[in-house]
Write a structure and sequence with these properties.
171 residues; alpha/beta; Mannitol-specific EII, Chain A; two-stranded antiparallel sheet; 5 helices; 38% helix; 23% strand; disordered C terminus
């Protein structure tokens, strides 16, 4: 399994327009709707916000990985957004978020869903990858960073969970 298999050029925004967390969630969810991944954007956004209410998916280092599984999702997919100014995403470290990788998954997705979350966390916690993603000039540059990561990282990662949620960093 490669991250690149779940990313599409049409779902990458080099500059998010939204300035608030809810605006960004709507904006990225629209990419899923426009590319036929999500049948009911409103319901998908509700699921994302339900997950955010449990605990912020802004995991520190300027990273957020909002994600949800629901019946309205056709196939496991990733949308990517970047903000140069940063967004208050109620981050675990209290700092703004600059990179958002949103995951949409069908209700029945399990192992693959956890693998995608874990791989994104690993990609974004790699300082060099994060730096390249933040400085990427084009969508193709973003895809190249993901492709390089896919070539270096094993096909499957060990995933730790707590209360049904992926643990991004060792506690």
């Amino acid at each position: 399994m490669k991250l690149g298999d779940f990313v599409d050029k049409e779902r990458i925004l080099l500059e998010i327009k939204g300035k608030e967390k809810d605006e960004v969630i709507e904006e990225l969810a629209s990419l899923f709707e426009r590319t036929g991944v999500v049948k009911d954007k409103k319901r998908f956004v509700e699921k994302i916000k339900e997950r955010e209410a449990i605990e912020s998916t802004a995991i520190g280092d300027g990273i957020a990985i909002p994600h949800a599984k629901c019946e309205e999702v056709e196939r496991l997919s990733i949308a990517i957004g970047r903000s140069k100014e940063g967004i208050d995403f109620n981050s675990l470290d209290g700092k703004p978020v600059y990179l958002i990788f949103m995951i949409a998954a069908p209700k029945e997705a399990k192992k693959e869903y956890l693998q995608v979350i874990a791989k994104i966390a690993r990609l974004l916690h790699t300082k060099n990858c994060r730096k390249k993603l933040l400085s990427a000039s084009t969508v193709d540059d973003v895809l190249q960073v993901i492709d390089e990561f896919d070539r270096r990282v094993p096909k499957e990662l060990r995933v730790k969970t707590k209360d049904g949620r992926v643990i991004y960093k060792e506690e």
